[in-house]
Amino acid sequence: MNGNPLYHWTALAVSTALLLPIPVAVLAGWTPPWMRGRRAGMRLRAYGALCCYALAPLNGLPRIADASVGAVMACTAAGLGLIAAAVVLFLLAERKDADARSAAQAEAPQA
């Protein structure tokens, strides 16, 4: 069931390189240039992306360690919970952005 550990190490390395740097930088205070107009929900987006990243080690490490089927399935189920949390965080970030945009439009002078 666990397959070749090399595939899991490769997937873990790729997901770490692609999914981890930007959310950590955002939580440290940096805002990507393409997201500067949507600053209200940046921290929520970063936490959502970290939830997505956490899925990789949660699914990969038990397989690399050649854990039992029950342990692998428990980690996979926990990973589904993380993805559900990420979806909620992304939706909350969009709502926060929409609220900030509507507040900014309400404050803008009407011409």
Structure commentary:
With 111 residues, the protein is mainly α. Helix content is 76%, strand content 0%. It is built from 4 helices and no strands. The chain starts with a helix and ends with a helix.
**Mean pLDDT score:** 91
Classify the beta-strand content into a percent band. Answer: under 5%
| Alpha-beta classification | mainly alpha
Tell me about the biggest sheet? none
The geometry reads as elongated
- What are the segments in which pLDDT stays under 50 over at least 5 consecutive residues? none
Oligomeric description of these chains: single chain
Termini separation: 65 Å
Rg computed from alpha carbons, rounded to a whole number of angstroms = 18 Å
Helix content: over 70%
DSSP strand count = 0
Following the backbone from N to C, one meets helices and strands in this order, namely HHHH
**Helical stretch tally:** 4
